[in-house]
């Protein structure tokens, strides 16, 4: 890992000619795109355009039919042992629409669990770190609560803390605020915004166009399995080039 090219590639994601079908249905069609280190990408597009499928291929929750996705200078979709795949996955944090917390574990145990189990971190060290992360997402006082005692917004912030506990260089978000009551959307977006400000590399599927405008470095507009436009928020919101993007934005208003 000493050559300049490999160093440059570290922590970046490069998606090359990625195609995927469900049966005969092409859900991703030769997708090409890159995420550079520290970049915040917002993926938007109509429902059913393939946003979730695309983001899930990045940590191989979905297999692909052709193409490649490199991360840390390695192809995530190359044949590899489960152990190796799990190690790679642990370097890519994922936050889902549904929070998926373990209901029988306290909040702090939810956050500390993966570092203990996957990384072999000593429990007391993992718990201390978990408390710091909970503080960071504004939930230090909920460490000993159980997920069922928290609001949706609080649970999603715990889910973000849990993903961060593995110290991933990249975070993926798939509609993290879509399942929340409107009054809780802001608190989750604020945590995401602070992560972005700290330089985290992030890919976010979201319909929150205010967040996209304020936080994204670039927007990928996906439609029917293709990226039709990659643009800065200024370009995208003021002068969308593709007619489909123009229609998508007009429909939001
Ligand atoms: P988005 O997240 O943009 O709404 P998805 O990636 O979830 O889109 O889905 C893209 C398309 O693939 C949709 O037409 C959806 O119905 C289809 N699809 C998603 N998952 C599956 C699956 N497991 N089997 C078959 N079709 C699927
Ligand atoms: Mg989706």
From TrEMBL:
Superkingdom of this protein's organism: Bacteria
Pfam family, one: ABC_tran
Location of the ABC transporter domain: 13-249
Keywords assigned by UniProt, alphabetized: ATP-binding, Nucleotide-binding, Transport
GO molecular function: ABC-type amino acid transporter activity; ATP binding; ATP hydrolysis activity
Keyword Nucleotide-binding: yes
Cited PROSITE patterns: ABC_TRANSPORTER_1, ABC_TRANSPORTER_2
Homology family: Belongs to the ABC transporter superfamily.
Listed name of the protein: Polar amino acid transport system ATP-binding protein
Species of origin: Rhizobium giardinii
Lineage: Bacteria, Pseudomonadati, Pseudomonadota, Alphaproteobacteria, Hyphomicrobiales
């Amino acid at each position: 890992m000493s050559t300049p090219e490999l160093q440059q590639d570290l922590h970046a994601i490069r998606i090359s000619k990625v195609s995927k079908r469900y049966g005969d249905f092409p859900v991703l069609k030769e997708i090409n795109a890159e995420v550079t280190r520290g970049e915040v990408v917002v993926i938007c597009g109509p429902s059913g355009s393939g946003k979730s499928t695309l983001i899930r291929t990045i940590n191989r929750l979905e297999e692909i039919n052709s193409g490649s996705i490199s991360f840390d200078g390695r192809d995530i979709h190359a044949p590899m042992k489960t152990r190796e795949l799990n190690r790679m996955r642990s370097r890519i944090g994922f936050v889902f629409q549904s929070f998926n917390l373990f209901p029988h574990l306290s909040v702090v145990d939810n956050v500390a669990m993966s570092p203990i189990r996957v990384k072999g971190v000593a429990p007391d060290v993992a718990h201390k770190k978990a408390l710091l992360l909970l503080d960071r997402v504004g939930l230090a006082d909920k460490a000993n609560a159980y997920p069922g005692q928290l609001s949706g917004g609080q649970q999603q912030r715990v889910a973000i803390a849990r993903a961060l506990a593995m110290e991933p260089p990249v975070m993926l978000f798939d509609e993290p605020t879509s399942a929340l009551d409107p009054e809780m959307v802001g608190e989750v977006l604020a945590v995401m915004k602070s992560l972005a400000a700290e330089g985290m590399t992030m890919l976010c599927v979201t319909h929150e166009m205010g967040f996209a405008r304020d936080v994204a470095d670039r927007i990928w507009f996906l439609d029917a399995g293709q990226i039709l436009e990659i643009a800065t928020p200024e370009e995208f919101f003021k002068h969308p080039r593709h007619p489909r993007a123009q229609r998508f934005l007009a429909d939001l208003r």
